[in-house]
Automatic annotation (TrEMBL):
Its EC number is 2.7.7.7. Belongs to the DNA polymerase type-Y family. The keyword Nucleotidyltransferase applies. Pfam families: IMS (PF00817), IMS_C (PF11799), POLH-Rev1_HhH (PF21704). Residues 14-254 form the UmuC domain. The keyword DNA repair applies. Gene3D superfamilies: 3.30.70.270, 3.40.1170.60, 5' to 3' exonuclease, C-terminal subdomain, DNA polymerase, Y-family, little finger domain. It is found in: Nucleus. It is an enzyme of class 2 (transferase). GO terms for molecular function: damaged DNA binding; DNA-directed DNA polymerase activity; metal ion binding. This is DNA polymerase eta. It comes from the Eukaryota. It comes from Gossypium tomentosum. Its cofactor is Mn(2+); Mg(2+).
Amino acid sequence: MPVAKPESSDSRVIAHVDMDCFYVQVEQRKQPQLRGLPTAVVQYNEWKGGALIAVSYEARKFGVKRSMRGEEAKEVCPQVQLVQVPVARGKADLSGYRNAGSEVVSILARRGRCERASIDEVYLDLTDAAEMMLADNPPQGMETIDEEALKSHILGLNNEDGSDVKENVRKWIHRHNADHRDKLLACGILIVAELRMQVLKETEFTCSAGIAHNKMLAKLASGMNKPAQQTVVPFSSVKGLLDTLPIRKMKQLGGKLGISLQMDMGVNTVGDLLQFPEEKLQERYGINTGTWLWNIARGISGEEVEGRLLPKSHGSGKTFPGPRALKTVPAVQHWLNQLCEELSERLCSDLDQNKRIAHTLTLHARAYKSSYTDSQKKFPSKSCPLRYGTAKIQEDAFNLFQAGLREYIGFYGGKTQGSHCSGWGITSLSVSASKIVPIPSGTCSIAKYFQGQSTSHFSSMQSSDNLNTEATLSLPSGSECYSEVNLSEPKIDFPKEESWIKDTVPDLDLQEQKDLSSTLSEKTQDGFIQEDISPLLLSEPE
């Protein structure tokens, strides 16, 4: 959360582009006969036809929702077309959706700094492009405005007098007496409309967008009018937007912090925060969070568009709900091997295509103890330095799981019994690779790059079973070792880290993730994915 207060006269032009029912659109592009039909993408399993992960707008009109199972959707809308997510290694394969998202990103990045926020959403900083347009070909002097731009929804623009909406938008864009910020937004309207049409032309995908002076407002706006539309938030309309916005619709306020604001402070809308001095909010929630709350109540956000086209991490996960819970250590190891194989493939592809390496492997799990149904104890997340090569990642992930399991069972005074978890069930597993950095430019080969590292950073270069590069990565060597786990590898260390099977922030459950990402979009209304697709891999609900 940002601490510094940006100037309220922020004149950036930021867009949040959100793909419409993206998983459905990807499947409809593969099967054009599905276009215009009620369609849902389903994560198939044997229980009631699997869980819906995306629902087309045509299906929503019949009452189909993402919280439904496939059989329920058929009952509500018998003609709904259910398309299964591809499966690989016994779990959902999102590579097709991920690659389709990359197509969109490559188009959007042509006009400004681009941050890929998830599979199906992107932030754009269009300030430079807008300033250039304003200097070279200002909208105020344009004789014709593209039809798609004229369809824009401009918050605060009065269209209730029966006047032509598109004509009102044209007049707003053409205003000569507008301040500099609004003139830049007018440029943003034209640029985003053009980009959205280019995405449609080149990929056949529609998208919606929000255009504002910061990321927070742009994201709120992008979900207000869907599908295939764009919404603009002029500075003069910020207060009106936030005054009545439910506090838990704001990003990062859907969970415990939002509940505290409601219960302890009587805050039900973002506008309610305006009554509290910054000092009061800091006293209650700390300096950083207090200042952040004070800022967002006024529509102020200094968060920058990061200029990231590639993901910050890679992950693979699967859930095992109800009777499918894993109850033996061999069963857990089997699925960890599958997840690690997928993770290794993605890491190798990233290394080969983007010359990037990951440094940290993290394991997350969710578990229950049958005799402690009311327990709130979470399975501890564990991490260690990452070694490249499928077998090494599998070995290390399993060791991380064993360390977490011992700690988890020890909380209740229990112990493992052979290959069984003594009444435990694992309902979710995921592995992720993070701290991904580029290999320095000018390096003539990957092998020479790693050979140039100190022995305390990389102990050796070993061959891998599936890595098509000149060399692979190995664990750092040094004086520290995995706590609680016996590895066949030498003791390990990593620069500037004190412990490397370490606790990480516990992974959020799906409802908490939904809360943290809730916005005005219809994304918040149709539930959340409950099956194999990992939270690490998914964007928000569509």
